[in-house]
Amino acid sequence: MGTIQRVSQAIEYLTDQAATASDVARHIGVNRSTALRLLNELMKIGYVDRDPASKEYRTVAARFYRLVGSHFEDVDPTEALDPILSGLRDKTKEAVMLGVPASGTMVYLSFFPSRHAVAVRERLGTVRDMHCSALGRAYLASLDVEELDQMLGSLDYSGGTSDAPPGPIELRRRIDKARSDGFAVEQNETSAGVSCVATAIRIQGKVFGAIGVSGPTTRFTEGRVDDISRDLVAITAEITSTSSEQAPNRD
Questions:
Q1: What count of other Cβ atoms lies within 10 Å of the Cβ of residue 40?
Q2: Is the pTM of this model over 0.85?
Q3: Which CATH superfamily is domain 77-246 in?
């Protein structure tokens, strides 16, 4: 069996569960030292990480998002959305990002930095826990009841600050508010001093992820949040309408 085949088997194995180097070695039929070398190489390029406490390895879901077959036929969502996100950044002067769900987190597929000197500094591939981020709550608020119940039971509530929801009951309360308002807001939950407003987006009728505007909490006053939320709601409505019109007709 060649190296590429062994690497593929290791990745597929770690996609289904976390495992030690010994577990991986047994699964792909090599000794532990060989498995460790393969895993270390995968860690270097970001496809696998290792839990320092359990010593178990797992795949990094965010790294594989662009490799998975798209659910959106005849359209590249990021290519269509980037000019819109850039325009929103220019209007708000704050950081704007597109996040998509991946294993209980939201991963940045697009990021446009703020024009302010004091600003949130992020990058493509940034991962935010779904329960404590506005992006995550906007996405969760777009799910139907059954899907939401499944997600609430599967999330890890250990991330975020002390202001983040500690469990599913409080998270559901905040999701209900996001549904009522039409947008989600988090202040000081992912990081102290940082706030974000977000709305879910649909591409060709399917929930794709969420768009957020983020910046220092000191700038995100109640009036400012109202202004940003209106811009987001209008933009997501436009995206939904445009993508529906562009959807291919299969009749």
A1: 13
A2: no
A3: GAF domain (3.30.450.40)
Q: pLDDT tens per residue, the chain (251 residues)?
A: 578 888 888 988 887 678 999 999 999 999 999 999 999 999 998 889 898 889 999 887 656 555 544 444 444 566 678 889 999 999 999 999 998 888 888 888 888 888 887 777 776 667 889 999 999 999 999 999 999 999 999 999 999 999 999 999 999 999 999 999 999 999 999 999 999 999 999 887 788 899 999 999 999 999 999 999 999 999 998 887 665 555 544 44
- The 8-class DSSP code of residue 131 comes to G
CATH for the 3-59 domain, from 3.10.129.10, 1.10.10.10, 3.40.50.40, 1.10.1240.10: 1.10.10.10
**Closest C-alpha to 182, from 153, 214, 225:** 225
Q: What share of the chain is helix, strand, coil (3-state, %, to 5)?
A: 50, 20, 30
With a CB cutoff of 8 Å and minimum separation 6, the contacts of 197 are 134, 183, 184, 185, 212, 213, 214, 220, 225, 228, 229, 232
CATH 1.10.10.10 domain locations along the chain: 3-59
